[in-house]
Amino acid sequence: MAKSMTPTALLAALEPVAEANLDRHLSLAKEWHPHDYVPWDEGRNFAAMGGIDWAPGQSRLGEVARAAMVTNLLTEDNLPSYHRLISESFSRDGAWGTWVDRWTAEENRHGIAMRDYLVVTRGVDPVALERARMICVGQGVDDPTGTGDHAVLHGVAYVTFQELATRVSHRNTGKVCQDPVADRMLARIAADENLHMVFYRNICGAALDLVPDDALEAIVAVIENFRMPGAGMPDFRRNSVLLAKHGIYDLRQHLDEVILPVLRKWNIFDRTDFTPRGERIRENLATFLEKLGKDVVRFEEHRDRALARETARRG
């Protein structure tokens, strides 16, 4: 166990773990095809091809489902930035390069399937969607970790939490769509995200064994500064509030379904290999989580009051 390692040395030490987890992933990942998840017989031409353009009444999705689908899809659309960032954090050589390319190819299917579904079923305005995509991809993503550090430790810590958060969001979006076709598609996408999360979680777990203090410092920095990679998209704040308000992805889920399960998997609060520096970092983490727990309760109380007011107005 080393107290600290250079990024290059750490990547070299972790490469056997990456190779083993790449092999594991390839043995578990199931081949699937976006076209099998789209109801093509519902499609019809838009005005440029002699049909009619989109109108709100054509969508069978409710307001929350539309906001969730657009948020999730635009997040997937920034794949070029994610590929660049992960390539910079890892390496283009060996197992690292093979994983990055495989991950990118699998992630690309998500955007294909979701966009085809939304366009064919006229679930959202395709013109507004394309304009938003151009904005998102045009501005890209440079620091999704919120830490200013693109090194491997911050990178694998961030994507561990982010992939799990995305899985939760996709799965809950499928449910709120009230459409078995959308639910099936998003469940398939969520299964991919879970396998991706496991790869990154295992890499980060191995880093904890090699450089406990440094890895924990990166993990805590990511948790304290966490934000979803779509934070710069149009209407992100409005849509995020709507999603949180209706249980697609809220602070409770972020704490109970994302942060805490991963920390337990890494055995963060029972490890005995931290130095006094690591112990201080762990104490800071405990303090942050305690505060976050209180924030969750306040958020839920505020949300319950707001929903009660809405119900009373409708009644």
UniProtKB/TrEMBL annotation:
It comes from the Bacteria. Fe cation 2 binds at E107, E163, E193, H196. One of its GO terms (cellular component) is cytosol. GO terms for biological process: fatty acid biosynthetic process. Fe cation 1 binds at E76, E107, H110, E193. Its cofactor is Fe(2+); Fe cation. InterPro entries: Fatty_acid_desaturase-2, Ferritin-like_SF, RNR-like. One of its GO terms (molecular function) is metal ion binding. It holds the Pfam family FA_desaturase_2. Keywords: Fatty acid biosynthesis, Fatty acid metabolism, Iron, Lipid biosynthesis, Lipid metabolism, Metal-binding, Oxidoreductase. SUPFAM superfamilies: Ferritin-like. The keyword Glycoprotein does not apply. CDD domains: Acyl_ACP_Desat (cd01050). Binds 2 iron ions per subunit. Homodimer. Belongs to the fatty acid desaturase type 2 family. PANTHER family: ACYL- ACYL-CARRIER-PROTEIN DESATURASE-RELATED, STEAROYL-[ACYL-CARRIER-PROTEIN] 9-DESATURASE 7, CHLOROPLASTIC. This is Acyl-ACP desaturase. It comes from Nocardia aurantiaca.
